[in-house]
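Q: Got a minute? One more chain.
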Amino acid sequence: MATDTQPTTGEPTTGPDITTGMDLLRFATAGSVDDGKSTLIGRLLYDSKSIFEDQLEAVESTSQSKGHEYTDLSLLTDGLRSEREQGITIDVAYRYFATPNRKFIIADTPGHVQYTRNMVTGASTADLGLVLVDARNGLTEQSRRHAVLLSLLRVPHLVLCINKMDLVDYSEETYNRIHQEFTQFATKLNIPDLEVIPISALQGDNVVERSQNMPWYSGPTLIHHLEHIHVASDRDLIDARFPVQYVVRPKSDDFHDYRGYAGQVAGGVFKPGDEVVVLPSGMTSTIAGIDLFDEEVAEAFPPMSVTIRLADDVDVSRGDMIARVKNAPEPVQDIDAMVSWMTTKPLQPRQKLAIKHTTRTGRALVKDIQYRLDVNTLHRDQDATELGLNEIGRVQLRTTVPLLADPYSKNRTTGSFILIDEATGVTVGAGMING
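A: Always. Here it is, folded:
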């Protein structure tokens, strides 16, 4: 979960890349073991020239040694897959590539049900979810579960890639059947934007180049869709939210009067001169200036990491939030949320945990478990008394500190939190606040 603001360095966040001016799209891939996910990612890396010559030579050599008449692009990501099979890691793997139009971060998430927590982690910050299915098998239980999880995580755009079309003779009938079946299933979910693309990751059909084998398909290629999908409007640009991560007080004599508040804009647009309120104290001031790196900017919007300076010397510390005076979140201590449980020790009523919401920390008491959600059937088990590893359910919490929260459906940053075992410091749950 994206539960803390990001500094101005480190892994890039979704949105404009300040250093290049290029747009950045973060998308999560999901698919069963044999659906061709590794080959598709390898194809994207290869066709975007995001691999080194020695890597390609090694893949070509290994492909020949295995007797393949083609370059097995799945070998570019097979290292991770073999690690999973050996039990070394089951974590989310991130891949980076770029085209002339956009930069991309791929969150390669594991597909098995026992790794639901890892998929939740990888998809929680994604702009787009890419679900891969094998054209020969059609929709499977895993395909439906992936779609449910992406819907639950409010990923605003979904692409269903019907892969291995070369193995069904590029059949339009097969494409139409899977398209219709998935579209009917998606009506039960919250999926505002759906695109269905027939591809062959192995042969490259409709991945980067339009396929000559499927003249009946008139939609976009996968890379064209990824390059041109509009994601800026998916962010909340109305409700101004700025969780304070760090108070900047340089010790240099040249900046002895400087006092700023660093963090990442979680919502809305901030400009110098805006009247703002600091929560939870309720103190008001106006924005004197906004600094990005070593320059002043005219405005700040998600997901920019900036330093805000206020005109008045008010008391502000980490965990506070700067918002608009007439559009501020109401502090809440009774939380109704969907929780994904991430550890073997089950979540039970009366349990006490640490909670971290944006940059604010406190303690939480589990008041009640309303139901456990079956992510395969969407059935709500209202008799459930606990949540086990990788299970998701609706939970009532009471916090020791007021959270400055919004519904997750409105703002995925201020609407999410993590739960932490106080004894071990391990993250044991991720939550999405209901409206």
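A: The longest strand covers residues 360-373.
Q: Perfect, thanks.
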